[in-house]
Amino acid sequence: MTTAKEIRTDDAMTQLTRLREWMRSGRETVLGPRMLALVDWVDSKVVEFALQAGASELPVPRLIKHSVLERAGYFESFPASIVEESDGGCMPPATCYHCYAKLAATSLREPGVWTCIARCRRDEGEEESGRLQTFTMREVVFIGSAAWVWKQRQEWTDRIVAFAQSLDLVVQLDAATDSFFAGGEARAGSCCSKSKA
After folding, report:
1. Which pLDDT does position 150 carry in this prediction?
2. Which of 1, 2, 70, 189 has a 20 to 30 A CA-CA distance from 175?
3. What is the pLDDT of residues 134-153, one digit of tens each?
4. What is the pLDDT of residue 181?
5. Residue 154 phi, psi (nearest 5)
């Protein structure tokens, strides 16, 4: 769905920078008070949607073990993007890896939904407006049969599109093309499916 007047990402980022709501600080971005309040509000809505869908909130640690990412096949797909910390752990490249690691030793009798949030980092070396190397990621994770997960994906797509439209935002769904999803869903999806094994 589009409108006659599209808002370009570069224009929006320029305006946020001018208003001091989006400021670069090395590899990180510092948000101003209004932008931070907006991010917190959107996160609260996602948590609300997740809890309404029966999700459990899953607290996760700041770092993730190298062995967890190895087991998930992360390094086969993204060998140079991980950020190691001095105490032996890694900054998580995505929040879901924590979820899979916590659930790896459990046996699920029925499909499940979890939500978790973590500070993530990917050392991708790509510079483009709005793309961050260090960022906070909220994820809603579905684990179940392929058919059930696909059904949840469609329901959540519809839910998020309706939410965005209720805010009078222009909505357009596009296939992901960044390096994390290069080659379509198979690359990121293979990491996730391996980490559930």
Report:
1. 95
2. 70
3. 889 999 999 999 999 999 99
4. 53
5. -65, -45
Q: Give the H/E segment covering residue 57.
A: strand 56-57
Compute the radius of gyration of the chain from its Cα atoms: 18
Distance between CA atoms of residues 58 and 17, nearest Å = 34
For residue 81, the model assigns a pLDDT of 76
CA-to-CA distance for 66 and 12, rounded, in angstroms?
Answer: 37
| 69 token code pair | 């990412």
**Domain-located, residue 97:** yes
- We report the CATH number of the domain holding residue 186 as 3.30.930.10
Q: Per residue in 176-193, pLDDT tens?
A: 776 665 543 433 443 344
Which amino acid, 148?
W
- Give domain status of residue 10, yes or no: no
Domain that holds residue 96: 43-196
Mean pLDDT of the chain: 81
Q: Which helix (H) or strand (E) holds 24?
A: strand 22-25
H helical segments located in 19-72: 33-52, 66-71
Query: Please, are residues 74 and 83 in contact by the beta-carbon 8 Å criterion?
Result: no
Task: Enter the tokens of residue 117.
Answer: 């949030």
For the record, the structure tokens of 21 come out as: 């709501």
DSSP track, 72-132: TTHHHH-TT--EE-TTS-EE-SSTHHHHHHHHTT---SS-EEEEEEEEEE-------TT--
**What pTM did the predictor assign?**
0.77
